[in-house]
Amino acid sequence: MAGPTYDKADLDRRMAGAVESLKHDLQGLRTGRASVSLLDPVTVEVYGAHMPISQLATVSAPEPRLLSVQVWDKSNVGPVDKAIRSAGLGLNPIVDGQTLRLPIPDLTEERRKELAKLAGQYAEKAKIAVRNVRRDGMDNLKTDEKKHGLSEDERKRHETDVQKATDATIADIDAAFAAKEKEILGK
């Protein structure tokens, strides 16, 4: 017979993973300021494979509104330029030898609102993931109560712990979203 199915450490790990995933998604949203993480999702087709830019070049932000991509191999400048242009980030690289300069254009008010809405969607997905983890934890506690002799008082105490962890994680998600929304909208 298997042991208890409730594992608080696993639930905490899964909830923290949802927050980390959200933060990674939010980093990819352009806010009008240069950020080296802006190019993280871009992959370049070179040497017969798709590779992230970080494996082909050094990305830096020498100015608040400029990204610089120093490509290590001269033969990869064209593919990196093409990948950045086709990534849908609204960036147009200026090629200067093995360096690509990417001026970050101002965001229109309409685009800012779209990005804020997208950030809200990311936050909602993270909240759904956390609620699913909470549901799994509650289900595991009920199973343990039935199969493994967990007392009703112990189950309720653990359910309270799960709910507190859920509330704290949702608060973290709301804080990350609020910070990103403020950054996007420039308020």
TrEMBL record:
<feature type="compositionally biased region" description="Basic and acidic residues">
    <location>
        <begin position="139"/>
        <end position="164"/>
    </location>
</feature>
<dbReference type="Pfam" id="PF01765">
    <property type="entry name" value="RRF"/>
</dbReference>
<comment type="similarity">
    <text>Belongs to the RRF family.</text>
</comment>
<feature type="domain" description="Ribosome recycling factor">
    <location>
        <begin position="22"/>
        <end position="185"/>
    </location>
</feature>
<comment type="function">
    <text>Responsible for the release of ribosomes from messenger RNA at the termination of protein biosynthesis. May increase the efficiency of translation by recycling ribosomes from one round of translation to another.</text>
</comment>
<dbReference type="InterPro" id="IPR023584">
    <property type="entry name" value="Ribosome_recyc_fac_dom"/>
</dbReference>
<protein>
    <recommendedName>
        <fullName>Ribosome-recycling factor</fullName>
    </recommendedName>
</protein>
<feature type="region of interest" description="Disordered">
    <location>
        <begin position="139"/>
        <end position="165"/>
    </location>
</feature>
<dbReference type="InterPro" id="IPR002661">
    <property type="entry name" value="Ribosome_recyc_fac"/>
</dbReference>
<keyword id="KW-0963">Cytoplasm</keyword>
<keyword id="KW-0648">Protein biosynthesis</keyword>
